[in-house]
């Protein structure tokens, strides 16, 4: 039995299954509120930007964890992830970081990954935004 029975991953058997570790949709049966993050870039507090998509995604997810904690929730209540990478070569690194971040999350969030032409600075190759329930 889920310790979060009010969060349901939606993956209807009548449509093709998701490509990776995400759900086609998420239902929230009860919630006190929502938290929506801005897109997080891999910028450390001191201004450093790690090299590579996986390291950048790990930092983006760490930033999202901090925002969720500030809101009084956590990744266990994640509803949706929107991610952006600057090329197909960055998809595997992003997905490895995402899957590690979600490894202990029982329900899977909805997720979208898009390839974009770039961000505000050329060293950024990943940006991630998220939505979570406050329960």
Automatic annotation (TrEMBL):
**Membrane-crossing residue ranges in chain numbering:** none
Q: Which SUPFAM superfamilies match?
A: YjgF-like
Q: Which domain of life is it from?
A: Bacteria
Under the heading Pfam families, the entry gives: Ribonuc_L-PSP
Q: Write down what this protein is called.
A: Enamine deaminase RidA (YjgF/YER057c/UK114 family)
């Amino acid at each position: 039995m889920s310790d979060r029975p009010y969060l349901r991953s939606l993956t209807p058997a009548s449509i093709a299954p998701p490509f990776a570790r995400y759900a086609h949709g998420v239902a929230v049966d009860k919630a006190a509120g929502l938290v929506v993050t801005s897109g997080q870039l891999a910028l450390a507090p001191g201004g450093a930007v790690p090299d590579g998509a996986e390291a950048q995604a790990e930092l983006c997810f760490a930033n999202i964890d901090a925002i969720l904690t500030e809101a009084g929730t956590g990744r266990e209540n994640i509803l949706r992830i929107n991610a952006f990478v600057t090329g197909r070569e960055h998809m595997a690194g992003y997905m490895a970081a995402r899957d590690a971040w979600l490894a202990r999350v029982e329900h899977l969030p909805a997720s979208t990954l898009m390839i974009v032409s770039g961000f505000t600075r050329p060293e950024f190759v990943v940006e991630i935004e998220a939505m979570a329930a406050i329960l």
